[in-house]
């Protein structure tokens, strides 16, 4: 299990890691956005990326949803 986690952190893109975390949260919490539950720092810690990257990815998602 630990090896799978390490493999995911090194081979899966940050965008995909965020997407997987959001899917997992949706299973348990419904349609509540992840950023209303966790801070960007906490999200970054869970998926192994910097807060700044989380911020950029979330802004991209919101921008794409508006279109």
Could you please describe the fold and organization of this structure?
This protein has 67 residues and is mostly helical. It has a domain of 37 residues. It is built from four helices and no strands. Helix 3 packs across helix 4. The longest helix has 16 residues. It comes from Bacillus wiedmannii. InterPro entries: WH-like_DNA-bd_sf, WH_DNA-bd_sf. This is Winged helix-turn-helix domain-containing protein.
The share of residues in helices is: over 70%
Order of helices and strands: HHHH
Roughly what fraction of the amino acids lie in strands?
A: under 5%
Largest sheet: none
Give the terminus-to-terminus CA distance.
39 Å
C-alpha-based Rg, rounded: 12 Å
Tally of strands: 0
Task: Determine the mean pLDDT.
Answer: 89
Indicate the structural class: mainly alpha
How many helix segments? 4
Low-confidence stretches: none
Backbone shape: globular
Features:
67 residues, single chain, 4 helices, mainly alpha
Short description:
With 67 residues, this protein is mainly alpha-helical.
SSE diagram, text form:
Layout: H1 2-11, H2 14-29, H3 40-47, H4 51-66
Organism: Bacillus wiedmannii
Protein name: Winged helix-turn-helix domain-containing protein
InterPro entries: WH-like_DNA-bd_sf, WH_DNA-bd_sf
